[in-house]
């Protein structure tokens, strides 16, 4: 069925979609934003679309959306995939330098190694396996893969949205021939000096907390203005994140997306981020957090 005819059928059969903003494609989004700011157009958290073109997904990320996917129907039979771009009324954001890192996480960190962009599909698989039902359905996965940064991280420093993965590996003892194992990862989108986390996973106890800590340290050294964590949750508040209203989020996001990060510059050969993600001493980390709070730098 032609896309617009299918959209009309969905509106006719599913009343909940009638109150949500429909975005046909990237051009429709651009036309909408020429008329009104996004903060004035969105009433709830969700818009919807039947378009999964990578250029459209990139446009959504450029405007601060988290494009997620939903399946209508299904129940064992093939369903209809619908893109559900989410722009939270309140967004949870963290300044990397103000991240709270427990002492036990610091002790565990030396047993692991962080890389960037070296196992994209494996991290996506891990996220989909851990979070069921998953929103990482095939059409969205294809778009994210098409927008993923190369393993060299070329082009990831500018304003073009790029999807990257942060991978946590075991660090076998010296002399051990056992290969390193992927035990945690984070999937997200880099736009300038903003990093938005889409999903994460872990397979070993405590590895998820280590991955978060090392990723935060890396983002700080790479010059990111904030770490956008999406929807508010208790564990995110425990990291030091705060929820900000959508209008405030969009103002800061638009500034950060136009500024360059240094991710490709601080990551070593083969995506090795071990040196750049080294955790700062506890005392200096606490001092940095206190200085950020005193200067009013938190988003």
TrEMBL record:
Pfam families, alphabetized: Leu_Phe_trans
Superkingdom: Eukaryota
Keyword Endoplasmic reticulum: no
Keywords carried by this UniProt record: Acyltransferase, Cytoplasm, Transferase
GO cellular component: cytoplasm
Name of the protein described by the UniProt record: Leucyl/phenylalanyl-tRNA--protein transferase
Keyword Cytoplasm: yes
GO MF entry, a single one: leucyl-tRNA--protein transferase activity
GO biological process: protein catabolic process
């Amino acid at each position: 069925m032609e896309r617009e005819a299918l959209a009309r059928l969905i509106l006719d059969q599913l009343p909940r979609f009638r109150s949500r903003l429909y975005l046909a494609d990237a051009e429709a989004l651009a036309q909408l934003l020429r008329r009104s700011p996004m903060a004035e157009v969105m009433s709830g958290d969700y818009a919807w679309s039947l378009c999964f073109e990578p250029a459209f997904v990139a446009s959504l990320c450029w405007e601060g959306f988290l494009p997620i996917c939903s399946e209508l129907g299904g129940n064992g039979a093939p369903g209809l995939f619908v893109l559900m771009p989410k722009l939270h009324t309140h967004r949870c954001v963290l300044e990397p330098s103000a991240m709270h890192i427990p002492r036990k996480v610091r002790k565990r960190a030396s047993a692991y190694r962080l890389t960037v962009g070296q196992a994209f599909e494996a991290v996506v698989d891990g996220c989909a396996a851990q979070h069921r039902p998953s929103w990482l359905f095939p059409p969205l996965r294809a778009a994210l893969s098409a927008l993923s940064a190369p393993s060299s991280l070329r082009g990831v420093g500018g304003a073009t949205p790029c999807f990257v993965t942060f991978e946590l590996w075991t660090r076998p003892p010296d002399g051990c021939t056992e290969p390193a194992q992927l035990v945690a990862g984070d999937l997200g989108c880099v736009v300038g000096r903003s990093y938005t986390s889409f999903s994460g996973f872990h397979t070993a106890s405590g590895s998820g907390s280590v991955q978060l800590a090392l990723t935060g340290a890396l983002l700080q050294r790479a010059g990111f203005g904030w770490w956008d964590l999406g929807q508010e949750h208790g564990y995110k508040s425990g990291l030091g994140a705060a929820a900000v209203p959508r209008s405030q989020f969009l103002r800061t996001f638009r500034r950060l997306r136009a500024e360059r990060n240094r991710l490709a510059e601080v990551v070593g050969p083969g995506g090795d981020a071990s040196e750049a993600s080294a955790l700062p001493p506890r005392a200096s980390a606490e001092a940095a957090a206190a200085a950020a709070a005193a200067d009013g730098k938190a988003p």
